[in-house]
Amino acid sequence: MRKLLLVVTALLAIAPSVRAETADKPTLAFVTNSRTSFWRPAEAGLRKAQSELPNYRLLFQPLDEPSPAAQTRLLDELVAAGVVGIVFSPVDTKSMGATIDRLSRQATIFTMDSDIIDSKRAAYFGSSNVDAGRQAGSLLRKALPAGAKCMGFVGLLQATNTQNRVLGMREALKGSMVELVDVLGDDFDKARARRNVLDTLSSRPEITCMVGFYDYNTPVILEALAETGRQGQIKVVAFDEETATLKGIKDGTVLGTVVQQAYEWGYLSMLSMARFLEGRKSFLPPNGRIILPTRVIDKDNVDPYWTELKAMLCCLPAAREMKR
Q1: CB-CB contact of 103 with 109 (8 Å)
Q2: Other C-beta atoms within 10 Å of 62: how many?
Q3: Per the confidence metrics, is the pTM higher than 0.90?
Q4: 291 contacts: CB under 8 Å, gap ≥ 6
Q5: Is pLDDT of 114 > 70?
Q6: How many beta carbons lie within 10 A of that of residue 94, not counting itself?
Q7: What is the spatial distance between Cα 302 and Cα 261, in angstroms, rounded to a whole number?
Q8: How many helices (H) and strands (E) does the chain have?
């Protein structure tokens, strides 16, 4: 991977401004599945890609309402505005294959984060979420050799990334005394996420470990444990790199986290989309899947990783929270 560079590149901010600009330069869009802070490294990566693609205009477009209907409307608006290539994270991998197939007649579509293999998407950029789940499961096995019952918390139960992380974790836990009992979804609603954790603490005394499968789930878990005085009693494993998660690793309230390369998703997917549109497709493997490995961050490497992350995000504007 290329080293991080500091870039200052103006991006288009909203879809309606695209149409007026497409006469001189083609526009490529990067569409998220939410407005959570998980996507900030991807935005930084897209800014870097813009500095290397002067003949294109790159649009970073967070999704305000994490629903298939809202995401489909946004994708339709972008294509109608003249966007020629879209990289997006599907909110629902079961229902949005037909959307991809329809839009692919007018624009080139890449998926990222969650793939829809049986669709006409041209490529996928992201993690092996099965491998990520295995890594998180290994953290639990190592920390809990005597066994435990764990509850998982996640934004989108129906997303492929969730299902694959759960699958990988269950595989890693086979033969151990650690069990992932269930996973509760919240549809990116933080109030509901908090209720899920508090209800588990009050009604499931057998639960002694918790897994935050999406970036914001672990900070919610930590808040609930602090509120109920259960810190230290519940072991926590995370995904992604929220500030509260990294602080938790440093202070010992989080065992570790599995992080993805969202910066590279933003950077490499945009460069690859440009190559693809120019007819240079040899970079793609036969299955169209570009897999960027996940990393385990624990107390031994959290400090250098945090330094790396801060450098990555240094030039972005202030964080924009999801609207829920």
Answers
A1: yes
A2: 19
A3: no
A4: 126, 127, 128
A5: yes
A6: 11
A7: 15
A8: 11, 12
